[in-house]
What we know:
By secondary structure, this protein is an alpha/beta fold. It folds into 2 domains: 8-149 and 277-363, 3-Layer(bba) Sandwich (FAD/NAD(P)-binding domain); 153-274, FAD/NAD(P)-binding domain (3-Layer(bba) Sandwich). It has 7 helices and 20 strands. It has helices at 41-52, 68-72, 90-101, 189-198, 218-229, 325-343, 358-363, and strands at residues 29-37, 57-61, 78-79, 88-89, 107-110, 114-121, 124-129, 134-142, 148-151, 181-185, 204-209, 234-237, 239-246, 249-256, 262-266, 269-272, 276-279, 295-296, 309-311, 316-317. Strands 1, 2, 5, 6, 7, 8 and 19 form a 7-stranded mixed sheet that branches. A 4-stranded parallel sheet has the order 12-11-10-16, with helices on one face. Strand 11 (204-209), helix 5 and strand 12 form a beta-alpha-beta unit. Helix 1 (41-52) runs parallel beside helix 3 (90-101) and helix 1 (41-52) packs parallel to helix 6. It is elongated and about 70 Å long.
Amino acid sequence: MAFLMAPCWLDRRNLPAQFNRKEADMSEAIKTDVLIIGAGPCGLFAVFELGLLDMKAHLVDILDKIGGQCAELYPEKPIYDIPGIPMVTGHGLTEALLEQIKPFGPTFHLNEMVETIEKIGDPGFRVTTDAGQVFECKVVVISAGGGSFQPKRPPVPGIEAYEGTSVFYAVRKMEQFRDKNILIVGGGDSALDWTLNLHPIAKRVTLLHRRDDFRAAPHSVDQMRALVASGKMDLKIGQVTSLEGEGGKLSGAVMKDNANAVSKIECDTMLPFFGLTMKLGPVANWGVALENNLVPVETASFETNIPGIFAIGDINTYPGKLKLILSGFHEGALMSQKAHRYVYPDKRLVFQYTTSSSSLQKKLGVN
Length: 367
């Protein structure tokens, strides 16, 4: 979607099979107990708390990897306030949370953004993403941090006319780019990853970056340079100054190199990876109350103004709110207790401790 500061260990293409999104007929609704919007630390820990209470969860995230802000903004930055862990990186915390929730088999839908939430029961919701995937669930948990990461639009005049037809900020389906003459712009992990992944199916791939130095994983850079050396793809150093084409169909891009020489790159598709910016995004259209671009909740279960829709983590607000990961973990635990009433209205919930409950330990696979 944009430059990835995190190494490839969080890219969905490298995840164990149980974490990959299952290919499904987009016309069919996926039924689940709980849909979690956002796969950052709070969303991941919510899977654990829900799983202890026998609730299954699917997670949707606009990023192409798991971990939210921890993975996107500070994968190697030390975090010092996770209880019981003196220091952990965003990388380490995400890996630990993924390991913790393995027993509950969550399914991740990455590179997708929730567009609509429709009430269909009491409770009951139909949730639709921008990829056309539909979910039907009893509970929705908004764990979207400060909002959704949105790709930054490059400063190219008239680029809006090509967006969605020839210019794309994310790769939803690789097959869409088969036999295309692709220009990829950027120097981070996303730019290099998609250069390498699309190269086998594209007619031709050209990578353009403003300098001959990349922020991506070294092995990805080495692979790219090997392809260039063998003549299997092109590498250009410079910047796009304008686009050519009519009716939203790209025919080429004009670039200027570091010596101010102007040339044209033949292409019919452009994938610019210029980074991400945080915006509230479609949350404002979901029907939940907002207060200064945050979701107000009550503090017994962190439920919103709509029964069955909860908000945990940085996206919510309440008196005394602290924007800390550990606070989001606490919110996820209390949210799960209330969510159980919606998913199992006729089932009595008995509070148990993982340290002493044999049934909980069995769920966790503890011998």
